[in-house]
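The freezer alarm interrupted the setup, so I double-checked each line after restarting. Inputs confirmed:
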Amino acid sequence: MGVPLALSAQNPVIRNQFSADPTARVFNNKVYIYPSHDIMPPAGQRQDWFCMEDYHVFSSENLTDWEDHGMIVTQNKVPWVRPDSYSMWAPDCVYKDGKYYFYFPSAPAAGRGGFAVGVAVADSPTGPFICEPEPIKGISGIDPCVLIDDDGQAYIYWSGGGIRGSKLKSNMKELDGEMTPVQMPQRQGGQQQGGQQAGNRPPMMMAGQNMEGLPEGFKEGPYVFKRNGWYYLTFPWVRSDKEKGGSGTETLAYSMSKNPLGPWEFKGIIMAEHANNCWTNHHSITEYKGQWYLFYHHNDYSPGDDKRRSVCIDKIGFKPDGTIIEVKPTLRGVGIVKATSKIEMDRYSAASADASVDTLDTSNRFQGWCVTLPKKGAWATFNDVDFSDASNAYLTGRIKAEGNTQVFVREKNAKGKVIAKFTLTVVSDGQFRRDQRGQWLTLTAPVEYMPKGITDLCITCEGEGASVDWIQFKNRQTYFTPAAAQPSHPDAEGFIRRWCLLEPIDKPNRSNTVFTDSYLRENFNQQYFANQFTILPKDGDKVKAGKQTLTWHQMESTTFNSKLFRFSEGLQKQVYGVLFWAVTTIDCPEEIKDVRLAVGSNSASMWWLNGEEALLLSGDRRMVKDDCMSPRLTLKKGRNVLRGAIINGPGMSDFCVRFLDEKGQPVKNFTIINNK
Amino acid sequence: MEILRNILVASSLLLATTASAQSGQPYIHDPSTLAECDGKWYTFGTGSGGIITEDGWNWKGGGVRPGGGAAPDVIKIGDRYLVIYGATGGGLGGGHNGRILTMWNKTLDPQSPDFKYSTAIEVASSDGMEDNDAIDPGVLLDPTTGRLWMSYGTYFGNIRLVELDPNTGERVKGNEAIDIAIDCEASDLIYRNGYYYLLGTHGTCCDGVNSTYNIVVGRSRSVTGPYIDNVNRDMFHGGGKMVIAAGDRVCGPGHFGRTIIDEGVEIMSCHYEADFDQGGRSVLGIRPLLWKNDWPVAGDRFKEGTYMIESERRGYSLELSVDFVRMQGGMRMFGPRDNNQQQEAPKPVENQKLQDVIGTWPSGNINVRIGDYMFRPHQRWTITAVPEAGGYLSNPYFKITIEGTNRALAATADCEVTSVPEFTGAAEQLWRIEQLTDGTFRIMPKQIPGQEGINKRMVLYSAGDCTPTLAEYDFNSDNSKWNFRNH
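Predicted 3D structure, all chains:
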């Protein structure tokens, strides 16, 4: 059982734990990442050094939704590894002849010294992996990488006294070649490693050969792949020429060759040093569904400690001559994000120069980040958002501001078409509204324009500065559907769900406590539009009520109660301080005597059957099924017109109506028809 | 609570109080279920503070709950308290984008060195558009499963149910909210006897003496509902059976909380939107909680007055052990009147009066016994609150005296009862009267002479049909139970 992790395509891609040195491989049309697993050092371990005790594997089919398949190899279960070495560094995994071979370096058990590389074998990319009892003979070093050439020959590369490479035997567990004494060079420019400094040691017996033609300076983490007949040896590299842009930390660099073991021709930089001096970088380069991707790491969740890192992905491209186009690390990463998922705007693909990213919670950085747009005109764009499953949606977002302001969401760029407008009223009005300056608020906004397909979103600051955590489109629940042409029936409980509803009449009331019987009689009997008590409205008919021109809508409620609040909100009409009119025509096959009209309404309402007042519900009222009953009534054979008026101040208006017989059973033997 | 919540935060003005409501400064809105900590009781309301009582009757400010917002609930889980509150205010002044947070504390006593809230974490939210406003949480630790449930919501949409982790106070991973009711606020969940109960408030909030707030209930065999009322109506269709409404010069009860004091001794806490005797302010209300046919019903506040004290065991009445003084006359005429003979209409017979009999009573202590009730002076007890003596979670202490005298019922050092000629205010003459869940009462002396501390064990007890004593409370025995009748 895996644990679904990410819900949004962005960097870093693993968001519940640290992860580094990602080797990405494609097996069975899925991408698997085999990273190192940084942890906070337990007591007794060096607190300012790398600390890794096990490996997890992650998979995805879209580079967006990653699943953690859990721990696959731990230092306690490898026979040759010192169980408290916490040195399970950068691994690799390859497939050959039905088996998955997982290569990993670690510190061997006491007395052996240095680093060795071991193999574990499994039948599936997620394990279970069975560890070989001994490490591979002839490798003293770290960062194994295995290339299986088109002819099936496997090569292994590692770092240890420079970068070395060797053929692997077909069993994938032994080097193919002689052991020779190798004088380990004095380490230059490498990161200070506890106890790992190579001084004037005696020569070591090693297999394979040094990779020739690589530039001067510290190198580690080889990753070799083949593309269009070229072999690429890529590696983290500390450029010595600080004055030419180097900062003394690792870049990602590469060399090319027509031979898998070189000699190599140095070509340049894949990714420059991290801007925040995160010392290491370590990577892999993989093609998936026709696009090449660079997997690398950066200390996003641990900005003050570069030994706790996180895996990131960006697209990578090649020039016609096969050389690599330098990759700029992005927060956005790769993959398409659904409009109906949380779109983490702090992972923008582009932003105005004044936009900045901050951690939401410095005590738990896995909570993520927000983007701050400091002033009017600031913007941030998030590319590749898929609107295909957004319909009848509204927009929500988590936003904070220090003053009243607006944040717009636009399509494509900062000048693009406005999709929705968030309004932040955060300054107290001194009365009811609390001061909400600087507080995270989840806000909603109606969508004014709904993009289609895959597009880019841009948030723009339209007033005082604001910070945005995420935005998300949410599809509305369906409360009503347009009534079908054919007659309908009361539902199983007898509720009448088909009504011709008039858009709300503006009827300002700040409270529902004014709805006394006499207020209601006076106000319901007042004329709002012509033929108010006799009209048999059709869908689309319009009436004039004062200055308002209002339309009748023949609707079928999806629930037993007709939610007028949602009827109005769905039409983007006012929802409070309103008066609704509802009319339905029912057709009885025979006369039905001694029935009662049973109504619940929020708030007050009045009902007429065939022009005669049947029922009044007064007061500040909640909608309760069978709240009030009319006196005994007779439903005529043929057409009967039921008319209601529902009034509301600040509440969520709705009503439910049915007819009950003398025994309290619902009356259902009639049809509900549209007026034509 | 939909409107005006934020301007109704209880403050701490000093006002004269009567014995009819909780005493001291019980000013609160949206109180949490009472929580006991180191012998004191706490409840927290909308705003930041809470109120505290040491004896259960006299309340004062001083509770501390950071985070502001509205309508918290509190539950003790293990040796920690989980405080759950809405960070927002609902409705006016902030929309319906609510958030509910939980935080832990080892103690509720701000003076304790252990008093420290953990960082609050969000367990539920609403986006402002959906059919829910995430405020007004109420929690239940299911005694049958150990699972922790929370209901929340207001009139803005649905009441929802979610599951929390009782070890962490976090939302259970992957838990999806379930809609369980409409048109309610201030919901709470309780469990009893194989039923889960969902309590909610209907009516108008926050309108002072015009507030029609009232508490209704539905029940279900499953915590996820459906919660059905007494006429088979789902609370998701607006159903609800009344638990408590206005009356007794208070109106607008809301925010139910149940507290079990002892077997068969339960109370419900709430606020009244307005206490007519306290300037129409919002105050804490505590009422006995009765159970009738597995439905919860608020009992009445105990009213001072003159009563027969009837044993549930035999139906006899507590009385002084004095000579029965016969009234004049024996058998009166009976049989049909002769219609042809004009006769005077029969005259009422007057009750026996105290002065008719008091001269026959000894002057010192008089024992008490239980006998046939004949509404005679030695059987009529006047029950009067003694507010200066403090109280307990539903009432002040009372004195129980023979009507028209100061002769008072008293406990003795050998765990018997007697009457003393003059009420002195001594603790053995003060009585705690509590209505039990079946509607009967238990009556216990505040103190038993020679015993340390407040008595919480011994009750007035029918040793025999005619013999009262003090014995250990047992809800399952009618010997422990009494009724107060005014007839």
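Quick read of the result. The domain at 337-475 of chain A is CATH 2.60.120.260 (Jelly Rolls).
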